[in-house]
Amino acid sequence: MAQDLPIETQRFKQLRQELSLTQQAFSEVLHIKGSIADIERGKTKLPGAAVARLLQTYNINPLWLYGESDQKHLELASSVLPKVVTLDGTSNENIAMVNVKASAGYAHNLQDTEWYDALPAFHLPLPEYRNASFRAFQVQGDSMLPVLQPGEWVIARAEESLAELTESQVYVVVLVDTVVVKKIQTTASGLHLISLNALYPPIEVKPQEIREVWRVTAKITTNFDQPATSLDDLTREMREGFVSLKSLLLKE
Q1: Predicted TM-score of the model (pTM)
Q2: Which partner for 30 in 50, 72, 130, 150 could form a disulfide, CB atoms 3.0-4.6 Å apart?
Q3: What is the pLDDT of residues 3-45, one digit of tens each?
Q4: How many angstroms separate the CA atoms of 53 and 35, rounded?
Q5: 29 burial type by CB count under 10 A (0-12 exposed, 13-18 middle, 19+ buried)
Q6: Does 154 or 55 have the greater pLDDT score?
Q7: 178-194 in b/e burial notation, b at 16+ Cβ within 10 A?
Q8: CB-neighbour burial class of residue 214 (10 A; exposed 0-12, middle 13-18, buried 19+)
Q9: Pairing of strands 191-194, 179-186
């Protein structure tokens, strides 16, 4: 029975379920070779390296994991600087490109230098792109319409801490399991990630869920033939479409 398992085993499984991760996905995040099924069954001890990874990735208190503390999370330093920077052949920092496909694994490989080697990169010989870390991310979805179209790229500068963020800027936010492009609003309970498209509600996150933050400074686009559409017009058109569809369904 589950109650007969060591408390660290029970809480390890509890964490995975709270994060909505499969056993395979959780093992990849924690760099555990093979399946973690035996750990959750109590047949294999939880590796110390995995405990360290839980602290590093999710701020999980090791004492809580082993039942010696009621404090589940530890408040670590608020730095959100990138864990890895990429260099060109002359040891100058360049701009790595994270496309939509790569972004699915980006949050899980923040400190894996070999993973970054597979990313294309480029350099901009402009003064505003010196003396700081920059990264390019491809936009996924329509939550930032009309400013950012699906498939466009943003170039973003690394932020040092959450305290430096402002509500007027657009950011690339790296969470524990995904990458999103949003505005950020500070609230009493945490942070709200805000879409420009009003059809998308705010996403509430805790500070400890944020791994990196990049302030968008420019975008790369090929959508020159797209007509300019205001956010109000776009939202109205989409809502009118939903109303029309609903009317048709009710008539059937």
Answers
A1: 0.65
A2: 50
A3: 689 999 999 999 999 989 899 989 988 889 877 999 999 999 9
A4: 16
A5: buried
A6: 154
A7: ebbbbbbeeeeeebbbb
A8: buried
A9: antiparallel
Q: Domains plus CATH for the chain? A: 2-65 (1.10.260), 95-220 (2.10.109.10)
Give dist(CA 252, CA 243) in Å, integer: 15
From 213, 207, 211, 177, select the one nearest 73 (Cα to Cα): 207
Distances (CA, A) of 164 to 5, 36, 141: 44, 39, 27
Q: What is the pLDDT of residues 186-231, one digit of tens each?
A: 876 678 999 999 999 999 998 878 999 999 999 999 887 655 555 5
Q: Is 123 within 8 Å of 92 (Cβ atoms)? A: yes
What's the maximum distance between 2 C-alpha atoms anywhere in the chain? 67
Token pair in block for residue 150 = 């699906």
Q: Which two tokens stand for residue 247?
A: 């009317």
- What residues pair up with 214 in beta bridges, in sequence order? 158, 172
Residue 16 phi/psi, 5° resolution?
Answer: -60, -45
Burial class (CB in 10 A: 0-12, 13-18, 19+), 203: middle
Cα-Cα-Cα-Cα dihedral sign, residues 188, 193, 195, 201: negative
What amino acid occupies position 67? G
